[in-house]
From TrEMBL:
Residues 373-394 have a biased composition (Pro residues). GO terms for cellular component: cytoplasm. Keywords: Hydrolase, Magnesium, Metal-binding, Nucleotide metabolism, Nucleotide-binding. Pfam families: UMPH-1 (PF05822). One of its GO terms (biological process) is nucleotide metabolic process. It catalyses: a ribonucleoside 5'-phosphate + H2O = a ribonucleoside + phosphate. GO terms for molecular function: 5'-nucleotidase activity; magnesium ion binding; nucleotide binding. This is 5'-nucleotidase. It comes from Pinguiococcus pyrenoidosus. Belongs to the pyrimidine 5'-nucleotidase family. Residues 358-394 are annotated as: Disordered.
Amino acid sequence: GDDSQGGFFSKLKKRVFRGETQTKESMDAVRAADAALFPWTSDQSPPQSPTMPVVTPFDSHIVCIMRPGVLEQKRRLVQMDGSRSLQVLARFERVLQPFKVKGTQSSAMSTRDLVENTNLLWHTAQSKIAAVKRDASLQKASNATAEAAYANDVNSLLMVEKIIAQEGGLYPSNMVQAVSQNSEKLALRRGATDLIKTLTWRGVPLTILTAGWAPVATEVLRQTGGVAGPSGMLPPNIAVAGNFFQIASNGIVVGFSPPLTETACNASTAAALLGGSVAQSIRSRPNVVALADSPEALKKLVEGVPPKTRICIGFLEVDEQFNTKLPKYLDSFDVVLVGDASLAYVARLVESMLGLPVQQQQQQQQPPQQQQQPPPHQQQPPPQHQQPPYPPHG
């Protein structure tokens, strides 16, 4: 009923806010729920799939699995097919990045924030962009339909891009320093490096999609310790899709490559945008782990990928709309991570499908893929989809 459901939501919300996951009682609950969260660690052979919903603290957040038997069935299917059948799709903002800057209540900096709200742009362009965003917010508040709100967002984004291209004075080569100066605000979620290393070691493609600027997301990854190789290049299994700059011969941004913003945040568009081996992996690997921050983002994210086995993991922020959003998340995702979760659960789930954990092996040597030549989209992409013009840094 509504009363019991509301009480459950309220209790869950309080547990996340007051950090109950660190108490002895909650740690006992973690141990008691391990067989349900990770049935493949059971001593039973074969392990039995849990049937009751699992809601338990794990690594300082809450894990919700409403259909654990279905999840375990999917996990076994992926494990049987092997690593060559698997790919991972993830949103950059609010998924690979946390909701909040560590230790604060400030939202993490998006790729658009870095370009539009730092000294990368001339002051006059920043002022005009701020005015466009104010007007867009006022219009959005008065829009009666979702379609009108979406049209308003697209129109304002087109205006912002026009200002940047014509009056911004944006040199992508300056982004290296800008990302470094804002590293805490741009940081990835805890556990992201371990997940990326696992995928790289096993040769599993990771396609990262952003509604903002792909070159900024790429630079954040390059500067995250343990992700890039010794030369500063990203591992060849990692691809970043989003909006790309069009750069003049003098190194200044003069335009942007389509598609626009949110349209770039689906797998089919990423395949067309990046081409080559990335497109082949997206279109041919039938098993997908999809990481998204809303049911709507998930639906868009998996457009264009084979539908064989999809394990969908959602990241749910605890905010004023928490009670309203939670039922939709539980219905749309196989797993819902409540609070500003780490990626530890995702890494452990992926490792179970690929074989034994690989952390010790990774500490001893570099993954062999890092010694290969990067795919075409990381070498010299076509002019209409240019990557950052700056050279790799160590």
